[in-house]
Amino acid sequence: MDDIPALGSLDRRFLNVLRWRGAIKALILLAVAAIGELVLADQRLPNGLAAVPALAFGAWLTFVAPARKFTHWGFALDDRELQVAHGWLMRVHTVVPIGRVQHIDLSQGPIERACGVATVVLHTAGTDHSRVAVPGLSREAAEEVRDRIRAAIGASP
Is the pTM of this model over 0.85? Predict the structure, then answer.
């Protein structure tokens, strides 16, 4: 895979988005663990059998996993194609020819809006992998990517 170009990284503010998402998952996990602790208390088992692992995994979801995920995202855009790569254990490298793009979305959930980042979503012809997303771009960079792809679509035969 030596022909992969140098990929640009995402906006650093996307790391905060990933941390918030991890914290929300951790809170849900801790709520389930609290219910588990109540059930285990009725069985006269020691305290913490559900809470301690949930706390450890919640901390990993909030502080460790987001940084690892962030460092393994990248994208590159030229006049012919968009390349998106992500993943650590299972590395996925997607190449989208600009001529295959049917429409482009720019999305921002509430956490992304609060952190000042956006996601560019390309929809292509076909059924499998017809949606390719580039998350974690500043709003301005996302609009620039969208406009460059729209201009390239208009220029393609």
Answer: yes
